[in-house]
Write a structure and sequence with these properties.
Layout lengths: L18 E6 L4 H16 L7 E7 L5 H15 L6 H8 L2 E5 L5 H17 L6 E5 L6 H11 L4 H4 L3 E6 L6 H14 L5 E4 L6 H11 L13 E9 L8 H5 L2 H19 L8 H14 E2 L4 H4 E7 L1 E3 L2 E3 L17 E8 L9 E6 L6 E8 L19 E7 L3 E9 L7 E9 H4 L7 H11 L8 H18 L5 E4 L6 H8 L9
Parallel strand pairs: 1-2, 1-4, 2-3, 4-5, 5-6, 7-13, 9-18
Antiparallel strand pairs: 7-14, 8-12, 9-12, 10-11, 12-13, 14-15, 15-16, 16-17
Helix pairs in contact: 1-2, 1-14, 7-15, 10-11, 10-15, 11-15
Length: 504
Amino acid sequence: MNPLRDPQDRRLPRIPEPCALVIFGVTGDLARKKLLPGIYDLANRGLLPPGFVVLGFARRDWTDGDFESLAHDSAKEYARTPWREEVWSRLAGNIKFVGGSFDDDAAFDKLSDCLDGLRHSHGIHGNAAFYFSIPPSAFPQVLKQLARTGMADNERCGGWRRVVVEKPFGYDLPSAKALNDLVDDVFTRDDVFRIDHYLGKETVQNIMALRFANNLFEPLWNSKYVDSVQITMAEDVGIGSRAGFYDATGAARDVVQNHLLQLLALVTMEEPTSFDAAEIRAEKLKVLRAISLPDDVAAGTVRGQYLRGWVAGQRAVGYLEEPNVPADSTTETYVAMRLGIQNRRWAGVPFYLRAGKRLPRRVTEVAVMFKTAPHLPFNRTDVEMLSSNQLVIRVQPDEGVVLKFGAKVPGTTMEVRDIAMDFQYGEAFTEASPEAYERLVLDVLIGDRTLFPDAAEVEQSWRVIDPLEEAWQGTRPEQYRAGEWGPRAADEMLAREGRSWRRA
């Protein structure tokens, strides 16, 4: 080992030990469009060990070659790095497939034997991660099989065994607790990775760098200087083919409970003592526990459902006209809410969260709105085009950070208006940001749990959402046309407090 290279240096490439990644539900969209391309991208970047095996499991009568063909086509179509056949050729020899249903004991016995054989043929030393790219309803059966065969037992396997669980992490607090107990009965808590792909996005991770690597922002990051914070997740698409899932879930459960509350926690948490996973999780959990709900839920939240309209010049049907959506559905496709954080740093600062489908464009951002200067020694006409300072963190698209402040317009008169300093990842760095799943799959194989919420975070997030869902029972959502920024009631909610939504 080079004595000049610090093994704790996070700038060094992180390469896992030889291991296998078992993907349940390998024929689904998530595996085809994200996981398999992400694995190729990792290989293309030189971040996978030679002894790495992809093992697919699905209800198909396939050979290894059939699965290799699917993986090849998926990776070539959706990979973000340039296609190189020599890279794929190295991966292709390490692609295996086991066919069977989740209640098929023989299929899981075969899977266990296959992993045991890979210990010697590929030198994986018993290391394997199981990715649940399957509906939550199938979790109990698969977990039961992994327990029955001993595949989840680290000691029996002579290496590490990990499980990756996709969201949704339950439907409410009781179901989340039941799911957590179910997984924890089979795997140790340190071996459970609850994946929220938003936390793998480069701009989300940059929130911590922006806050804790720069002394510029910390003195201003509190209720003395911050007027409010807006977190927006807007989608221009509808529900697609997800009617069965979405109508039983709604916008609050689908994205606020996980994505937006995690963004809120990262923006507002205290500085951790280190970037150890446990320390970061502890600080996020403190914030989630300090969240306060509106005293009047009807006045402090808005639910919406889109009608037919126009988005990006194309005609869009209304939610109730989408295939397989019940004609009397009261599921919200838009939600906005005002939350508070009851601690010394943030007491009195309103946090406005909104998420919706069929909005004018796709954007996710965090906007920190600062208070106006206590004294402006200008005439009113001098600053007519000046608003408050803003720091906007763009998560997607056009990832970057915008700092908005006032400056004098060139000329002989005094006129101050808003200008923006705009940092974009694509322009500032020559290396492209990795796709979220690429980063998170690598973290699973390495065993880095920093970007994965733990059971306590998940359950605390449901304690925020469940009371709102209960208060909304029996109410109908407000209506908005596709292509609008949500119901008029959402604008009125902020207007009552003298504020307005930032037009993202």
